[in-house]
C-alpha cells in the first residue's frame, strides 16, 4: 500500500523555479488617479507590493521646525532640549531651543525636512480600498534538473481574460487580489488599512511516468505575518519623491505607504520510476519485518511478567512442538566411496532405501585425540589397501538374508536395522584385519578411554559397556570420517553384532541400531 500510494518506486527530484509578476488596475481617490506605476513597488526575490493606504506629507524643505510631540520631545524651556542630540523616534537633530508646536504644546526645535509628518496612524478606511479589484499575472517557470524536465504554469490554451477560481479555473495564472485574501481567510478592507504579508503557494507535485503522467500547479494562499502584534502591526515603509524649485532649493513629498506584500512561494518534487529505488524499498521493508519480530521478542522478554498470559501465549504461538519429527540416517558401504543420506520413515529395508550422496570418500583413519594409539595409526595406513573390494567371492551362509550382502548379518524384522556393510555381494568388513585392529582391539580401545579419563578403572564391572561404545565410535570415525555423525550414523548389522559379541552386555539385552 505504501509502495504504491507514496510511489516509493520512483526517483525524486526537487524543483528549481523563477517567478515574474505583473499587477494591473487603476484606482481613483478624492484628489487623484492611481495607476500601476504609483501603487506597485518592485520587491526583491519572488515578491511584489501593492499600496493600499498612505500618509502623504507634501512640500518638505530642509529647515528648522518644531518636532512632532513624542513623549521625550515635550519641553518647557531651552534647558530641556540638549543641542545636537536626537531621540530614537526623532525626525531630526535638536537645535537646543524649545518652541511652540501649536497653541497648547511646546516641543524641541529640530533641523529636519520640515514640516514633519503630522499623522502617526493609518487613515480609516484605506485610501486605496478599491485595490481588491486589481489583478496580478504570475508567470512561473520550473525545472527538474535530474530529469531534464522544464514546464511553466501558463496553459497552452491560455485565455487572457480568465480569472483564477479553485473550481472553475484552477489553472488560470491571473489572480484577483480580493480573491487571494478571501482564500487566505482575510478581509481585504481590514487588511488594507495597515497592510500585511500574504503567501501565494505554488506546489508542483509531478509524476513523470508515461503511464500516469501528471504535472500541473496547485495554488494555495495564507497570511504569513502575525496580525495580533500589539506594536507596529501590518506592513509599511516610507519613501519620498524629490523636486527642484525655481530657486534651486530641493523639495520633496514624503509618502508613508501601507500595503500588502505578496510572497510567491514555489515548491514541489517530481518522481519517475527507477528500478533501483524499487529494489531498495522492498529490501528495507523486509528488514523492518525482521526488526519488528526482534522488538516484540525483546519487549515480551524484558517487560512481561514471568507468568504473564501474554508471554505464555506468545511463546506458545511462536514455538510449536513437532510430533514424530522426520529424521535422517547416514549409511556407509565398504564398496562405495561415499556417505549416503536416507530420510525416514522407511518403506523398505534400510539396505534397499534410496538416498542422496552427501559426502565423498571418508577420511582415512588417523590419530585423533578421541581415537587410538600411534601404533594403530601406523598399521592402518600401511594396510588400508586391504579394505579395497576389488574381486571378491560371494559369502554364503545358511542364515543368508535377502538384504544381506556379506552373509554375516543377523535376522531382524525392523526395517531400520536391515543394513549390510556392503552394497554388492562380497566379503564382510568384519573379516578385515583393519576392523580387528581399529575397532575391536582391546588395547587400542583402552588407550582411547584413558586418553579421555586418565584414572578410569579398567577392571570395573561395566568396562565392557564402555569398550563397546568406544568401538562403535571408532567404527563411525573410520567409515564416516567424523565423530559429528555419531547420533545419525547407522552401523551395519554385521559390524554391530560383531562388536556386541566381542564386548557383550550383561544379560545380553540390546536396544537401538546405532552407536549404543
Quickly describe the structure.
The protein is of the alpha+beta class. The chain is built from 11 helices and 18 strands.
SSE blueprint and pairings:
Blueprint: H1 2-5, E1 10-14, E2 16-24, E3 27-28, E4 33-34, H2 36-39, E5 40-42, E6 47-66, E7 93-100, E8 106-114, E9 135-144, E10 149-152, E11 174-176, H3 177-183, H4 188-194, E12 196-207, E13 217-223, E14 236-244, E15 250-273, H5 275-303, H6 309-318, E16 328-332, E17 339-343, E18 356-359, H7 374-382, H8 433-440, H9 442-452, H10 463-480, H11 493-502
Parallel strand pairs: 12-15
Antiparallel strand pairs: 1-15, 2-9, 3-4, 5-6, 6-8, 6-15, 7-8, 9-10, 9-11, 12-13, 14-15, 16-17, 17-18
Protein architecture, described:
It is a single chain. This protein has eleven helices and 18 strands. The longest helix is centred in the middle third of the chain and has 29 residues, at 275-303. The chain folds into three domains: 1-67 and 116-272, atp-gated p2x4 ion channel domain (atp-gated p2x4 ion channel fold), CATH 2.60.490; 281-318, no CATH class; 328-362 and 400-502, no CATH class. The protein is an alpha+beta fold. It has helices at residues 2-5, 36-39, 177-183, 188-194, 275-303, 309-318, 374-382, 433-440, 442-452, 463-480, 493-502; strands at residues 10-14, 16-24, 27-28, 33-34, 40-42, 47-66, 93-100, 106-114, 135-144, 149-152, 174-176, 196-207, 217-223, 236-244, 250-273, 328-332, 339-343, 356-359. It is elongated, with a radius of gyration of 52 Å. The strands form four sheets. Strands 1, 5, 6, 7, 8, 12, 13, 14 and 15 form a nine-stranded mixed β-sheet that branches. The two termini are 58 Å apart. Receptor for ATP that acts as a ligand-gated ion channel. It catalyses: Ca(2+)(in) = Ca(2+)(out); K(+)(in) = K(+)(out); Na(+)(in) = Na(+)(out). Keywords: ADP-ribosylation, Cell membrane, Disulfide bond, Glycoprotein, Ion channel, Ion transport, Ligand-gated ion channel, Lipoprotein, Membrane, Palmitate, Phosphoprotein, Receptor, Transmembrane, Transmembrane helix, Transport. Belongs to the P2X receptor family.
